[in-house]
Structures are given as C-alpha cells and as structure tokens.
Amino acid sequence: MSESLKLQKEQQQRGLETRYESSYHQSSLSSVSRQSYAAHVGGHGHKISGKKEVKKLSALSKKEKRSRLAVDTEDEVIGYVVPVFRSSHLATQDLMETQEEVKEEGVGYVVMRNLFSRETDFKMKTVKKTRETSIRESAERLTLSKKIHEKAEFQKKMNPDSLTHPPEFIVKPRGQTVWEGKSLTLHCTVAGWPKPRVAWYKNNVLIDAKAHPEKYFVESQYNMHSLEIKNCNFSDTAEYGISALNVKGESSAFASVIIKRFKEGEEVIERPHGYSPEYGVTFNTAIIDKFDVSFGREGETMSLGCTVIVYPTVKRYQPEIVWYRNGVVLSPSKWVRMHWSGERATLTLVHLNKEDEGLYTLCVNTKSGFDTHSAYVFVRDADVEEEGVPVAPLDVRCHDANKDYVVVTWKQPAVEGSSSIMGYFIDRLEVGTHHWTQCNDTPVKYARFPVTGLIEGRSYTFRVRALNNAGVSRPSRASDIVVAMDPSDRARLRAGPSAPWTGMIKFTEEDPTVGVVPGPPTDLAVTEATKSYVVLSWKPPIQRGHEGVMYYVEKCLVGTDTWQRVNTGMPVKSPRFALFDLAEGKSYIFRVRSCNSAGVAEPSEETGATTVGDRLDLPPVPGPVVPIRNTGTSVVVCWGASKEVKNLVGYYIEVSVNGSGVWVPCNNKPVKGTRFVCHGLNTEDKCVFRVKAVNAAGYSESTAESEACIVQASIAVPSPPTDVTLLERVRDYMVLGWQAPANTGGADIRGYYLDYRTVKDGVTSKWHELNLQAVTGTSYKVTDLKENKFYQFQVRAFNQVGISEASIPTVPLECKEWTVAVPGPPRGLRVQEVRKDSMVLLWELPTFNGRSPVTGYYVDYKEENGKWRCFQERSTKHTYMQLSGLQEGVSYRLRVHAKNLAGVGGPSKPTDAILAETRPGTNEIVVDVDDNGVISMIFECSDLKEDSQFVWSKNYEAFTDTSRLTIQTAGGKSRAIFNDPSLDDLGIYSCVVTNTDGVSASYTLTEEGLKRLLDISRDHQFPIIPFKSEMAIELQEKGRVRFWAEVAKFTSNCQVEYVFNDNIVHEGKKYTVNFNKTTGIIEMFMDSLEVTDEGTFTFNLVDGKATGRTSLVLIGEEFAELQKKSEFERAEWVRRQGPHFVEYLSFEVTPECDVHLKCKVGNIKPATETAWFKDGIEIEEDDEDAKKIGKSDDVLTFDIGKISKKDAGVYEVKLKDERGKDKTLLNLTDAGYQAVLNEVFRVIANSSTELKIMSTEHGIILYSFVVHHIEDLRVGWLHKESKISHSDRVQCGVTGEQLWLKINEPTEKDKGKYAIDIFDGQGSVKRILDLSGQVWEEAFEEFKRLKAAAIAERNRARVVGGLPDVVTIQEGKSLNLTGNVWGDPVPEVSWMKNEKPLVCDEHYTLKFEHGKFASITISAVTTTDSGKYALLVKNKYGTEAGAFTVSVYLPDDEAEKK
Questions:
Q1: Is residue 1385 exposed (0-12), middle (13-18) or buried (19+ Cβ within 10 Å)?
Q2: Which of 389, 605, 828, 921 is the most exposed place for a label (fewest CB within 10 A)?
Q3: pLDDT tens digits, residue range 897-919?
Q4: Which residues contact residue 585 at a Cβ distance below 8 angstroms, ignoring those fewer than 6 apart?
Q5: Rounded distance between C-alpha atoms, residue 527 and residue 537, angstroms
Q6: CA atoms 242, 248, 249, 251: torsion sign
Q7: What are the angstrom distances between the C-alpha of 471 and each of 440, 475, 661, 742, 809?
C-alpha cells in the first residue's frame, strides 16, 4: 500500500514538472482563444466542465506526443503547452500562424507569442526533485506571482488610460412602455478598446435588422448605439438586450419593452425618453451660439465653439463633450486644443493645415442621450513664395514600418500651379535633430514611396514637397513620428505589459543551434511595381537559430541566367525591400537569401516575371456634374463616380465664375463621396463647376463644365401661418384672420387652405377641408356653421414648391353673434420701407365695423419691454401711416385701433419686433426727366430673385387708373412713367419687390415737386445750348482782333451764324470764321479795327431743337481803347521785323551785392551794330568801362560790380543794321540810383546772420555778418525796444562785413533783448537776441574769466631783459650779470645753476635792487662755474625763468685755438 502511494506521488510530481502553469486564466480568453482551446481539448480526448476531472496519470513513452494543454493542480485548462524539441518547428509554425490571425486581439496575443516564438529547438527531460525542493520552489513561485501581481496592479493604477479595456455601458438602455402602433427607440452608449462589437437580442434571440428592415433599424455612431422598433404591436413586448464584446471581455445590458393596447376613453401617457434613474430626471440638451461654416488659411489659428445648455441642472454633473472630424474622434494634440468651461465647448485648431479641413461635429453625451452639431471647416492654401509653383501636399502618413524600411504615402494637392506636377520629393528628419534629409534624388510621380536605409530603434518623421516647371512647393505638414523597429516589438509595446507568469518552465538544450545557417525565406512576392521602384515582401525563414536574420536580394533580367545581388554592401533586416534604378519596360525575376554569422542560406523561390512600369492607372474622368441651388453663398454639387477606379483617394471640385476662365478649388482635401456643398460663393454669381478624381497615380482629367448655376437660396415649402384669430362672428358664420408665414421658402405665397373640426365636451372630431379654392388673402369667412357649436381651425400656406405644415389649431371657438358696438381690430398689419428713422405701417379694414362705419384709426407703438404709446394725436382715415422720428437701432412693435361713433375698438395683434435700421444696399425711388422731357420714377433692386416682381401702388393702393402711369421693368430696374403729369398725379407712390426681404421704397409727389419737374421737362423739350465761356475778345499779333466763345454741350449737327449789328457776316477779306467741333470753340478774326466796326457782335447757334446765343458790345470808350491797343500791337510787330529789344535794359543785384545791367535782343545778325552809352557818351573799346560789357547768347550785360556814386548816370544801348534800329535806356540817377541802392540794401539785410555773442576781457560783443557793407546802409541797435545811443561804455560799428555792438564792463542792467535793425530798401530786417537767463550767465562768466586772465597776464612775474643767452669768460676773471624783472606785486627772485638753487656767499654775490634789477656776480670764475644758469622770478600770477649759459675757458686753450 505504501509502495503504490509512493509511486502515485512520483507520477504526480513527474506530471507537474512536465506542465506549464499560466496565470492567463480562462475568463480573460478571447473568443478565438476559447475556440482554439476547445479544438485542442476535443482533439486530445479531454472533457472540460465546471466540475473537477479525476484523471489517472501513467508513464508516457518517449515516442508518444505529450499534451499541449496547460492545466492547474485541479486539471483545469489554463493555456497551451508546446514542448520544444528537435524537429518541432512545424508545431511552432502552426502556432505562430494562429497567433498572426488573432494579432489584433490584444494582450493575449502578445503573451502567447512571447512563449511560442522561440528560434531554437529544445527537448524536454524529466528532473526528479525531493519533496523539500518542490515545496520550496512552490513557495518561491507563489511569492513571485504575488510580486508580479502587485507590480501589474501598480502599473495599472499608474496608467489609468490603458490602451485596452473591456466594454463598459456608460448609458444603459432603459425600459419603455408605449401604445400599440407607435414606434420606440432604445439608446445606449458603450466604451471600450478595441472598439466593441455589439449585437441586439430579443428574449435572448439575435435580432437581424437587415432581414427585417420594415421592423427594425439599428444605428451605431460615435460609440452610441440605438435600436428602433417600428409600428409596435403586442408581440413586441419582450426583454431586449445588447451585448458588447472585445478582446478584453464582454458586457451586456437589458431593458424591458411593454406594448399597451389603446382603449376608448383611456388617456395616453408616455414615459419620457431618456429617463435617468441614477439622477431621477431626463436630461435635455440645447446647443446654441453654434459655429457656422468656417474658412481659414494655412498657418492661421481657428476656434470653433458652441454654448451647451443641459437642463435640468444637477449639481456636480457634467456632460461628456466629444469632438469629431469626419466621424473620427479628436484628441488633444500639438495641433488640436479642447476646452470645456461648463457652459461653452471650444475647439482650437493651432496652425491650420489642409489636413484640418473637414466636417467638424460637437457631440454632447448625457445620461439621457446625445445631441450634435456639425459644420464644415475649409482651409485655404497659404500664399506661395513663388508665382506658379504648386501648393503643398497633404496627409503624409507612414505604413508598414520595419527595422530599416517604411512606406510613406500622401495626397496630391488641389492646385498644381502654372504647370502639371512632375513629381514629389520626400524628406525625412530623425527625431532629436534639426536637419531634413532628402530621401529621393529623382522626383517620384506616385503618391507613395518606400523609404529604406533607416536605422533600427531610431524615430523619424517625414514630409513631402511637390515639383513642377515653376519650382518646388512648400513642404507639407510633417507626419506622425514612426519608430524603425520590428512590427512584433511594436505590437508588444502597443499592448502594454504582458500578463505575469505564475508557473515555471524548464528546458534542457539537446543540440545548440549556434552556427546553424538559416533556411530560405518563404512567400516571396512583388507587392508594388511602378516605373520608379519595385517592392518585395517575404516571410522570415522557419529555421533561424538564435541570431537575428538579415537578407540579400537578387535580381535577374528575364531571358538571361545572370543573377545580380542588389544590396551587396548592406544586407537588410526587414522582410521588405524596395528596388530602384530598374529599366522601365524590362522584365525581372527576384529571389531572396537569408544570412547570419554562420553563412548565407539557399535562395528562396523565384518570383514571377515582373515588368517595370506603372500598374496603377490614372483614374477615369468622373461622371457629369450637376449643381443645385442651396443657399445664398453655397451650391450643392453632385457628380457621377469614376468607373473602375483603383485606390481612389477622392475628388477635387473647382468653381469658376462663368466666362472668367479662373478656376478656384472648392475643397483642399479630397472628398470620397459624389456630393459636396461648395461654400464661400458670392450671391448672384453665375458659377460653373468641374470635378477631377485623384488616386496614388495622379489626377484624372477634369470633367466638362457643368451648367451655369446662379448662387441663390433654394426654394422650399413655406413655414406654417401663425396667429390664427377670430375677427368676426355671427350666428352662422365666422371670419378668421392670420399672419402670413415668416418664411416664404424663397417663393411667393400663392394662397392658403383652411381645415376645421368640431369640439364637443373636450372631444375633437377629424379635420375637414374648408375651401377647395385657395384663399389669396390672410382672412376668410367661414359660412354654414351651426349656432352655439364650438369649432377649431388651422391654416396651411402653399407656394410653387408645395403646401406647408398646418398652423397651431385655434382654441375652440363658439359660433354666436357678437353684440359689441365698437369696431373690431384691424387686421393684416404689415411693415415696409424700414429705414433708420422711419417705417411705413399698412393694415386692412376690420371685418366687424360695429354699430356704425369706421371713421378713423389710431396707431400705437412701443419699444422692446416698453409701454404702449399712441403715435398721433388725431386719428387717420387712411389704412397706412408713415412713422418718422424713430431711433436708429431700436426695435419697435406696432398695433392699430379702429374707431367709430360708438368709440375706439380693441387693438389689433401687434407686429413682430422691427429694428429701425437702413440695411446696406437699400435704394430709394429716383425721379428722372429724360432728354425728351418724359418724367418717370425709377426703382432698382440688387437682391432680385427669379420669381420677384415690382409692384407699384399709389397711396398704398393698387392702381385703378392705369392711363396715368406706364410701368416698364427690365432686369433689376423698374420705371413708372407719367403719361400726362398734372395735379391729379399728386400722392405717395410706393414700390415693393416681392420674394425679397422687405425691399421697398416710396416717393411723395407734391405740388411744388411737380412744378419743378415740369420746369425741367420743359427745359428738356425746348433746350438751350449751354456755353462754357461766353463771347470774349482777344488782341493778337499785328493788332489782329479775335472774337471767341466755347460751347459746353452740342452735337455734330450744331450750326453757327455770325452777326454784326443784326447783319449776317460771312467769311471774306475782313472776317475769318471757324467752329472747331472737337473743342467746341467758335472764333471770328478781324485784321484791324476801323471806325465802322463799332457795334454789337453775335454768335447764333442751332443744334436740332436746341438754340444758343452769345453777344459782345463794343462801343464808346471801350471800342476806342481797343482800337488804340490794336494799332500799338501792329506798330510793335513792325518794330520786331528788324533788330529789336525783346527785354529792355534793366538791372539786377546778385547775392554778392554786385550790380548788373542787362537786356535781351532779338532778330540779330552778325552785321548788327551794338553800342553802349553813358550820359550820352558812347563807350569805346579802349575805355575802362568797355571791360564791363559782355554778351551771352541774346543777352547784353554791363557789370557795374559794387555800386557807388560814381556809377550813377544814364545808360543806353542802341541796335542798328540795314533792316532798322532800336534802342533802350535806363536812368540810374536820382530815383533810379536810389532804386538800385534799395535793392542792394535788401540783399544785404536779408543776408545778415542771427545775432551771436562773444565775450572779451573788456566786455560782451553782439555781432552779425552780412555779405557786403556800404556806407549808405542804415543800421540801428535796440535794447528792450529802445534805440541804443553811442557812448564810451556801449559802442557800435562795422568791421569788414561784421556789424557789432560792444558792451564794456557789462552789469545786470545790460540784460534783456537786443536787436539789430537793418534797412532793406523799404522796411527793415531785425535780428533779435535775448541776453538774459543762461545766455547772460554764460557770457558774463566768460567775460569775468577773460578779464581775470588779462589781469594775470599783465601782472605776472617775468624777466623782461638784460640777460644774454651765452656768456664766455676766461678763467680767473669775475662775471657780473644783471636782469630786468617785472611783476605786480614785486616778484620773488632766485638764481639756479644746473637746476639747483644758488646761495649768496663769497663766490656768488646775489642782489635784487629797487624791485626791478636782479644781479649775480661770480668772482674769480673757474671751469667749474661753467653750466646752465637761470634767473627765476615768481609772484601770485605766475613764474618765469630767464636762462643763460656760462662757459669758462683757459687762456692756453684759447691760444691753441688761435
């Protein structure tokens, strides 16, 4: 017994050692994993159930395959077990392929792959352990499992937003009870990642909505799911459920639906939709202040926002705000920012790019449902840097990233520039650097490019530039960052940390695989082939060893047997490779070899022949384009899809104003549908559209231009009428009135239909039609009613599109007779001609007049939230009134009372609030009188629609007498022509344009205005030719007389009649006439005036029915003076036939004050004699004054220079030759001489400089410089406006060109304003200086300084003489020198020898006598007395030294020299 028990324990221990234990328990398995488990269990004869399974274990033979199921100690299956042994690569491959199928299932895939994707072969062996060892290892496993679990929980807490999480119902479907025959919808919101798949069930039976579309409709949008049950019947009562499933788990929710059958008299009560049991309310949402269609430009920042109101308000509850772009959820990023303030949701797009273009949706999720708002955002291209280059590509993405390879794709831009795009350049940037590297040397045509040569483990981002003949575009927005790494490693990182293992795996290596050459790659295929490159892909070899595997790619030209290795220098790490530089049109086959450190494997199987060329064709042209009117700024464009197109990227739509030839893109990001709303168009533009498709190969041809479409709002069904009221009632009829629809749908309202039903004891009957013939007004008399019965009414409007919805039914109205004496309220109030300070109110007569006829009306008005006030003091009999004096920008409401003899009736229904403003583009009626005198009124409208009409009225009533006016309308202009204007036409004329937003105007024709118009009409009928210049006279050369006038307006048929003293004159010897019809100038010439020419000259004009007349009277003194001037001009002409003076002798003074005489001569010949005279004496050539005569061109000059009295005299110049003679004279004596001096004075005075200050040791000097000075110039000095008299202390004078004023020993009294007054020939020129303040202080201080310096200079100590420069003396003799000294005070005297002081002793005798004489005596000089001596004198003002040199010589030396 003990032996069998021992054997059983050993077998159990052996079984535990050969199993794998996993914490990947059954509850977390995906559906695919569970199926795999079940298949394996079934295949090995295991039965899985909730109960324990007792199984006997027996020893296994070496050849028997072990079970591939991992079980725990209670035989529960918890995972796969794959023993790794020699030749087990087939099982490993099967498991790897299985895992590839469920790659997207999440964490489970990563865990299983890490276990089974070993690259070496192992075999398992059984290891015997003692009980103590087993218990210790079990404890260690439990401890390790606990630590791993704690770490996983910690990481889970640190990463609350993990990529994967099981489905969770945020909003569960609620149970509902509805009546039979109604429809209901179940709503719920599910969160989870990966995105859960949902299914609806009825009583646990799957609902197939596609098989029963008439009963069910299922919708899933933005993680919100709904099930609609249509036309419910009793059999739909059931429990409905929804199941959500993803790799992390499954979740379900249920709701009960009860269908009740309606019983007669039972009130229907429906439970509110979206009721939230959690908060006990039903949340309602309202989105206001919505963002509209927006337009931005690349590089700008745009914000979209809406105000969200959630009611009722629950404390600490906030809705979920989600933003979408083209149905894809947006997350905060570098380019996208989101903000929720509790009331307003804002989305900010930073640095717009074309990738940001699309349909943006704001979704507000609450516990009761959701609400959305969407609008399109258009992003225009930024301005190009160079004209004609393409715009930047967009939507750059990275695909199929491997260790050293990535595929970059992009979308072509909408605008190619001035020429077609030739290709694209791809740039890459390694993250962490700032240098972009171009990936391709030759532009690629396809919008797809494989980038090779990446470094494993590094991160990259990419951008693309387009190229055409004009240049290279700006770069696109950079792609998202991509890491060059193995896809399996990327999947493991994306999935997060692997589930911890709670078991232990033991392997024993049977044969090492180091040094094993890998097997050949498999599944080699050509995945892409273009004329630029070919892309190969393959699967790694099954037998790889421990090392990583790299690959060599080889190619062979079809028809040859030569294989060429493409990447000899650098084997690739990724199972992808792009081959470039292949010959276009040639066919190649390819193969791949794997390699490691052990060597190069055999080649893979060869690919089929691949011809280098584009496999992807350009997309075909899309179908016909159909534009449809939408709004005033947008058009809906539809087109047929491109047929048999591959890899369609989308469509670009272009618009052009018809006839302009300029095409502008409507979208800068391709759209995939065949319908697009083009926004941002100009109202009333006539536009044509075209579409082109785009795929990776490029653009298709553009479609043919669509038909022209005018940008206008589309026509729709009108809105329902409003305010249906009872206007009058009698025993058997009622009169109803209503307001016209607020929105006409863009077309005129053609009429109304009325319905009625009876009401008895609160029970209503069915609706019945009242009128088969449409009612054109806004009131209707309902007849054949029964007295004392209650009725309800509703009204529908219709236009050319269709019939509107019914208005709100009236309250039950009793049919009985009114007994009111006063009139009923007026009806049909409408407002037109709204301006900033006025508007016109019109109304219709009340349907009930009371006991007497209506005698007048009162108009009330009130501002918003104000009180009602009567507008006029007296009633008006008209059914219209112009309200003036309104305040601009204020909204008003209006109402009307009618009155009769019994009193004033009740008010009408008030109008809507009307804003007093003059809208932009508002026109008024213009009164015009044409050339034929026809009077008309013109009104123009720029907002004209297709069905709009001009409606004219007089006194706001339709025309009854059409003979008075003729209406002509063409385009947007209407003209009302008065046939025979008279007093009968006085009144108010108004014009209303139908089918517009209240376009209207009026004109009041008064008696005074009619008279003015008739006068203008008469002038137009009998016109007068206007003159720009009336007749004038002009004297010309030779004394010729010219009469002329200028006509302002005339035609080519205008004729002129020339009249003198009522006699018509014609062109002849005496008269010359001319009418220049280009300039409108009329001329008549006479060579001379005679006595008989005194009288009146007239020009008579006739131009069709227009006439004109202008005259000039020449009589008496005026004629005599003109005749005299004419004779003089003739004499002058005769003089000018010989040599003559064009300009007579005159003088001029230069800026340097030089005087020149000059005259200008004409008609001079070389033989013409010229002579100058002074005082009647001719100036000969040898005279001194002859040097002053000069001639330049036709100007004769005499240079006097600086004038003086000796230059006074009479100067004369004479000309003479055979043709005649002339002379000119200039008197420069007395007045003439003084005139020259005055001009000189003027030049001098104006040349004077501003007064300046100079300080000296004696005082202050004020001075000014002039260009020249003469004695006759009068100069005066002023101090404080008083003339300064000359004195010893204050002196004035002239030094050269300097005029000065000296103030000696100045004092405070000398401060003030000084002025110099210089005579300029007529008046004077003043220069003023204010000698006070800082100016005085600085000048006075400088004076004191200079004065002190002068005193010091005069009194300083100095040696004034007596000392020689050099003294030569014979040795043994005595030397005596005396120097003269000066200084005040008496200076101190000292003697120096060789810069050392001498002291008086027996050898040196030093004396200073009388303060003036300093002497030195050197007795018996020796050679040592030779040197440099100096007499140094010093007092408080200074020091000075008188230096001399003493040279002592010996007598012998002197003799030798001789």
A1: exposed
A2: 921
A3: 999 988 898 898 899 899 999 98
A4: 611, 612, 613
A5: 7
A6: negative
A7: 17, 12, 24, 56, 69
